[in-house]
Amino acid sequence: MKTRNILSAIAALAFMVPVQSCLKDQTEVFEESPSARLNAYNESVRKALCDGTWIMEYYAGANQSVGGFTYIMDFTETEVTVKGELSDKSATTPYRLTADNGPVLSFDVYNEVFHNYATPSSSKYQGNGGDFEFTIISHSDDEVILKAKRSGNRYTLKKAEAGFDADKYLQGIIALRKSYRAPALEGMIGDVEVTGAVNIAKRSLTLSYDKGEVDDDGNTIFVDKTSAFVITPEGFHLYNPIEINGYTIRDLFYLPVHNSLTNGVITFQGKLPEGYHFYEDLAGNYTFASQGLKKNITLTPDEEGTGFIATGLIKGLNVRFGYDSSFGGLTLTAQPIENRGSTTIFLIAVDISSGGYISEDESVGVDIRYDTKKGKFLFHDNGVWEDLKVDSFAFWEFSTSGDSVGQFSGYDVNGFFYLDSMTKL
User: Are 23 and 114 in contact (CB under 8 A)?
Assistant: First the structure.
């Protein structure tokens, strides 16, 4: 036993020599402390951010499940002004560059434009998968790569070119989103026939092709490759490049005249789905049906020509329906209905089938698509609510601070439960 102890002591003593030497070398190499070096790094990031306008590619949800969105950011030493495609406002709030196992860019003060997907609700304590704290992976004068601390998604800040017009850029995104009419795609990548599906609401592209093999039952095996994307004024920029048959697709440009997508080498022809309706064909009178309730309503085009104002759904009040050009149908989402001074009444989205979850998020709702076989419009969850599905709408009261007051029953109806259909009269 003594021998083993002596040998261990000798080994430990011998080991201490190179360690001490190594520590001495480190002292010589790093003249500043780790915290000082980290502070210096953060200040170099701050200097870059303050020099120009930045375009953020923002991907919400685990594995980009909610899709990609664009924010325009202008930084000062302490504050950031944000504009985005989902709001016609801009908002200025503080930001922070801090240390948390590395450099971190944090937007932890509520910003009504930027925190759209990160704001918690009564049913989702982390909101709809949005992020506001990011580990800085790398930066240069023109690009900052971030990793979201919640979702783990890659966020990219790209410096805009001189003369960049933020409003024009965002309006271009909105215009393309509204005019897009190619939800189904077909084309060739080399000698491989490829079909595709675009979900413009969730900002997702899936390309499929025959693998040239069959399964044990003799069925053809198809390969699906999917990526989220952000919309640009010209088309789509994919989160992950899609590689098929030796070709790589990262950017696709939309050609509205031909209703096609192309990267200059590969072109996909867009197809209008069955039951497609153009905007001007949807105005008029309908029967709106949910379980045990029917309402005669009128849809009137709004001033922007992007949706409709519905009268008759609630006595004396209006409800807004949207129009989605990707499938040629209507949309209905959660929305404020009436401001009562100290409170606001919302039409909220409800998932009764899963236990009565609710959401006041104004992106959560239903797509209303025409079924050619049934001759009427049917309601489909729009996929924004992640694991939940909208099957009803109800009325809910909120305080001016956003706190839930409770269900509201002061209208002629309490809500529309288990949505059924809309039939044009």
Answer: no
Long-range contacts of 299-307 (CB under 8 A, 24+ apart): 299/330, 305/279, 306/178, 307/331
Task: pLDDT band for 120, please (50, 70, 90 cuts).
Answer: low
CB 299 within 8 A of CB 314: no
Query: For 204-245, what is each residue's pLDDT tens digit?
Result: 999 999 988 878 887 888 999 999 999 999 999 999 999 999
Mind listing the pLDDT tens digit for each residue in 69-115? 999 999 999 999 999 998 889 999 999 999 888 899 999 999 999 99
pLDDT at 66: 84
Nearest alpha carbon to residue 133 among 106, 97, 112:
106
C-alpha count within 13 angstroms, C-beta hemisphere, residue 90: 12
Cα 251 to Cα 241: distance, rounded to the nearest angstrom:
8
Q: Which amino acid appears at position 320 of this protein?
A: R
Residue type (1 letter), 404: S
How many residues in total does the chain contain? 425
Question: Hey, what amino acid is at 8?
Answer: S
Residue 320 CB neighbours (<10 A): 18
User: Is there a contact between 332 and 363 (Cβ–Cβ < 8 Å)?
Assistant: no
Q: Tokens 């003060």 label which residue?
A: 109
Q: Strands (DSSP E) along 215-283, which ranges? A: 220-231, 235-244, 247-255, 260-262, 267-271
**Nearest C-alpha neighbor of 382 from the set 369, 367, 362, 363:** 367
